[in-house]
Amino acid sequence: MRVKKKLQLTSLLGFSLLVMTACTTSEVSADSTDFWSRLVYFFAETIRFLSFDVSIGLGIILFTVLIRTILLPVFQTQMVASRKMQEAQPLIKELRERYPGRDMESRTKLDQETRKLFKELGIKQSASLWPLLIQMPILLALFQALSNVDFLKTGHFLWFNLGGADTTFVLPILAALFTFLSSWLSNKALPEKNGAMTGMMYGMPVIIFFFAISAPSGVALYWAVSNAYQVLQTYILNNPFKIIAEREAGVQAKKDLEVKKRKALKKAQKKKK
């Protein structure tokens, strides 16, 4: 259910991004008066300031790190919510086995019990969508800044023309690769994996790749750096290998406790004899 909603929202926002980008072709400058154009120009000026007269590409990298650091609490909330959802999967599976029917009454009961479980565990499904909702306007504004602001359209970084598509495919490949690594790390600690999550893990990098090959190189650079930051954040703050080790240690501790109980019980029974 949660994955379907996320897929639908991702598709809707992606379509909105393409439509809005296609519809906005006018130049953006310091003289622009509408709110959106002023926001786009503010992003452009921020990138130019962070370039330190060295490279617009450096400005985009520092801008991305700045944005991701500011939004760190939002992304961390998403990660915590995702971890809680992962831990709840066995319980959700039990509920589905308890209410397997396709009739309205069974589906309603399953939905009620699932909502009750989420409330007890403190799971908020909306938490996983906030980073996506916040990032899309930023991505759109960056796209338009690179397309419609003069001093960014002519920017370069290494061999890339930041205002044009990357014909070498280096940045699209990096953007797709870091998107995959981010999803892989996030899903690594899942107690149970389903087809929808696996589909997203492999499908999103493909979508990002095809988007990045047609977008300005600056946007692809933003996406690559943003997802590289996400990989680092996940590894440091929500290390899946540590989560797996803690879970296995917890299971082993329960087994050891059961063994001790059985030994104690046998010892007590021998004393009675």
Characteristics:
273 residues; mainly alpha; 2 domains; two-stranded antiparallel sheet; 78% helix
Give a description of the structure.
- Helix content is 78%, strand content 1%.
- It is mainly alpha-helical and 273 residues long.
- The protein has two domains: 2-238, no CATH class; 243-273.
- Helix 4 crosses helix 5 (104-121).
- The longest helix has 33 residues, at 240-272.
- The chain is elongated, with a radius of gyration of 24 Å.
Topology:
Blueprint lengths: L1 H22 L11 H16 L5 H15 L1 H27 L5 H18 L8 H19 L1 H4 L2 E2 L2 E2 L8 H19 L6 H20 L2 H21 L2 H33 L1
Shape: elongated
* Main sheet: strand order: 1-2
Q: How many domains, as an integer?
A: 2
The share of residues in extended strands comes to: under 5%
- Number of strand segments: 2
On the 0 to 100 scale, the average pLDDT is 75
In a nutshell, what does this entry contain?
With 273 residues, the protein is mainly alpha-helical.
